[in-house]
Amino acid sequence: MADDCDEFPPIIVNSTLRESVLQFSMPSAEVLASQRARDEECEEELRQLRLQYEKQEATVRLVGCDSSGSESEASLTAAVDALRVTSGSTTPEPDAAQIIAKLANELIEYDTIFLPQYLEVLLTKKQDIICSVTNEIVSTIEGVILEGVSEGGSEVVVAGCWLAAAAVWRAPRVSSAGALLRAVLRGASDHQVTAIGAAVARSLSSPAWLVRVGDAVLGPLRPQRLLAERLLACALARLSPPPARLDIERRGVVSLRDVIACVRDVWRRSAAGADDGGEETPDEARQAALLVAGRALAAAECQPGSADDARALLAVLALPPAHHHRNTPEHLKVLVGASKLQILFSQLQ
Hints:
By secondary structure, this protein is mainly alpha-helical. The chain has 3 domains: 1-27 and 90-248, no CATH class; 29-85; 255-349, no CATH class. It is built from 16 helices and 2 strands. The protein has helices at residues 2-5, 29-64, 71-85, 96-106, 114-123, 127-147, 154-166, 177-184, 190-203, 207-217, 222-239, 242-251, 256-271, 282-300, 307-317, 329-344; strands at 11-12, 23-24. The chain has a two-stranded antiparallel sheet. Helix 11 (222-239) runs antiparallel to helix 12 (242-251) and helix 14 runs antiparallel to helix 15 (307-317).
């Protein structure tokens, strides 16, 4: 393992911004062995939980076989099973290496030497090394936050983009990504927030991923709210038809009328079985439209004079999005999601 570690150069984060060079040193073989042992223990616990869940599922199915066997009961059981065992989103989590590669190209004007080096580590597929280097990056960002982020410093943009990506990628897990991102943004300028939003939006192809990053960064401070709003606007623009897309991206804000037009268009395309050639499937587009609509309605609760538009949006959500999808689990999840929004925001109706 020590020989493998020697193949990689030390990873330097924002070396030009500090008097002392920050380097990520590869951990010793003993540390890696200890981490691997802990990972194996966690994997064993997950395996046991999986076995327990499968036994419970088998019991449920055996009990279900004792029913009357009518077609309606069978359909209802299948629908409930589909909703119970699948997640609320049909969009898979993004790959860390792909996002880092895109961010390295987007942030070429900044001091991002550590991004291509981190990409090399990710491409090794060696989980112990990846986890160790990722933890080193997190510790470095925590140290920068404690020392105080310099005003106008490029570390705000670079660290902000890395944390935004870490908040949504599949692995390695960075559970503190959202909290650290909010901390990095505390003193960020509007220009820095705009730079982070633009780079992240161009690096994440799915509207659902942009919504998730917006949820992670949302906080009481202006930079946090501004970035969350810009990312939500980018997600809405991705889902909207081309004539409205550029206008929403230019304004960088979300209005209920934009959301109404977007949801109607997504519903129409779903009903027609149309695929506009985007990176998201029709199922993913419907799910993402619900995510955007829910956050727009939540913001509308604090905005005077928005009740009429909110009622109009809730009315649109009440319409079946696609007739030919009515028997699929994806369609049922959309209906359940729309119903939840109508219940949550019933006071606006």
